[in-house]
């Protein structure tokens, strides 16, 4: 098997895993561990500025604990895979 064929096969497998993860929670559990992120961590994870996350929080899955915004890594992953934009 050539490097090109191996790379093509690997990309195909990765694409299928990602597709399954968006459809089935069991696959999502494998790809994204259950983790709660604070605003700074969510900003790094989504590559969005903290100000953008804070300003557009109504369109992003989140929860509040007191005055703190918290984000489920899985929810953010799902949101991004479905084309989540702010």
Structural commentary:
- The protein is an alpha+beta fold.
- It folds into two domains: 1-31; 33-86, Arc Repressor Mutant, subunit A.
- 59% of the residues lie in helices and 13% in strands.
- It has five helices and three strands.
- It has helices at residues 3-23, 25-31, 39-46, 50-55, 73-81; strands spanning 36-38, 63-65, 68-72.
- It has a three-stranded antiparallel sheet with strand order 1-3-2.
- The radius of gyration is 16 Å and the shape is elongated.
- Side-by-side strand order of the widest sheet: 1-3-2
* CATH fold-level assignment of the largest domain: Arc Repressor Mutant, subunit A
Number of domain modules: 2
Task: Extract low-pLDDT stretches.
Answer: none
Classification by helices and strands: alpha+beta
CATH architecture of the largest domain: Orthogonal Bundle
Q: What is the gyration radius calculated from CA atoms?
A: 16 Å
Task: Provide the succession of SSEs.
Answer: HHEHHEEH
Secondary-structure topology with pairs:
Blueprint: H1 3-23, H2 25-31, E1 36-38, H3 39-46, H4 50-55, E2 63-65, E3 68-72, H5 73-81
Antiparallel strand pairs: 1-3, 2-3
Helix pairs in contact: 1-2
In short:
With 86 residues, this protein is of the alpha+beta class. The chain is 59% helix and 13% strand.
Offer a few descriptive terms:
alpha+beta, Arc Repressor Mutant, subunit A, 5 helices, 3 strands, single chain, 13% strand, 3-stranded antiparallel β-sheet, 86 residues, 2 domains
